[in-house]
Amino acid sequence: MDTQAAINRAQIITPIEEMIRAKAILAPMSGVTDFPFRMMARKHGCKYAFTEMIDVNGIVYKNRKSFRLLERNPVDDPLAVQLVGQDADKLVHVARLCVEKGFELVDINAGCPARKVVKCGKGSALMKDPVKFARIIRKLVKALSVPVTVKIRSGWEEENLNYLEVVRAAESEGASAVCVHPRTKDKMYKGKPDHEITQKIKMASKIPVFASGNIFTADDAARVLEETGCDAVFVARGALGHPWIFDEIENKLSGTEDDNSMTFEDIKDAIMEHFFLSVGYHGEKMSFKKMYKHITWYLKKKKNLDCIMKEYRKIETLEDLKEFLERLQLREGNKLELLRAQHVSAPTL
Ligand SMILES: Cc1cc2nc3c(=O)[nH]c(=O)nc-3n(C[C@H](O)[C@H](O)[C@H](O)COP(=O)(O)O)c2cc1C
């Protein structure tokens, strides 16, 4: 979408309203939510998506891979960008560039628990210093013409659940919305997210609140929306190998009868489609590597997944990939599969 079109649309409906209407948003996932993955999600009902987190240093120091993450494609819209950093000036510089490129919303990552991120004071480490965090948000809000949002955890550690302080700081400095993943940094992805915290944030905030954490099925989405009163949910691991989750959530929320059963043919088609999107974006050779994890996720319900993926590793051409999937189909038959999104452990970032 060009800048003028973005401005036109923004006059009709704001990005935050778009998120609220979407009800289920594709969460930022580093190494996952690239253009091909986002397109798969959009095809299956995703109405609002985020980029992977983009480290501002990568842009400031002109890293080619980081710049690629800022590329826009008119069919991949609406799209918010997520930045990770701890230096307010660098964040402002990169966020301005994002707005020039047509991103309609800038989100600041204050939740990433990865060691390489927090050791530099970024991601969830921002929650340790709400005053500094507030300064960053203030500068961004002042500098940008688009909404600034924040994605947080419940705190750095169980002993200091300072989510309300952090949300208040963001809100009072002009942040437009907050997304909470209610686990501490220390918990990483362990245990259940505590959505009572999401509810408390919602009750204490004037800005919209989005919930992230264990949205693996349409029922999860409906329950969390109902129990917390939040404005929308972010879907992360629930979409891995299961981009259909967005349609399922929409059907559930609108009361439409849905049938989640699929044949292996459907899964095979989805893998091929995802692969072709990947080839268009990453090139054929790179796609065989990039698609490895996605294919593992698409086939996660299969017995002998290790053996199947061993076979996959030998594949070098698209023709071989087609044959590999056809062989698998012959072996598996085309029985109906009840495909419910299920927990996928988070890769170490
Ligand atoms: C592979 C992976 C990469 C992630 N990368 C990001 C990221 O770049 N930025 C971010 O804010 N959260 C990131 N997250 C966290 C998710 O957005 C989400 O908050 C978290 O996974 C909890 O949701 P879930 O239980 O539905 O997966 C990532 C999660 C996973 C599994």
Commentary on this structure:
With 349 residues, the protein is α/β, with parallel strands linked by helices. The chain folds into two domains: 3-254, Alpha-Beta Barrel (TIM Barrel); 264-333. 48% of the residues lie in helices and 14% in strands. The chain is built from 16 helices and ten strands. The chain has helices spanning 3-12, 15-22, 35-43, 56-60, 64-68, 88-100, 115-118, 130-143, 163-172, 195-204, 218-228, 245-254, 264-282, 284-298, 305-313, 318-332; strands spanning 24-26, 49-55, 79-84, 106-110, 148-155, 177-184, 209-212, 232-235, 261-262, 337-338. The strands form two sheets. Strands 1-8-7-6-5-4-3-2 form an eight-stranded parallel beta sheet. Strands 9-10 form a two-stranded antiparallel sheet. Strand 5 (148-155), helix 9 (163-172) and strand 6 (177-184) form a beta-alpha-beta unit. Helix 13 (264-282) packs antiparallel against helix 14. The longest helix is centred in the last third of the chain and has 19 residues, at 264-282. The radius of gyration is 20 Å and the shape is globular. The model has no long low-confidence stretch (mean pLDDT 93). Bound molecules: flavin mononucleotide (FMN). Residues 27-32, 52-53, 82, 109, 111-112, 151, 181, 212-215, 234, 236-238, 346-347, 349 line the site of flavin mononucleotide.
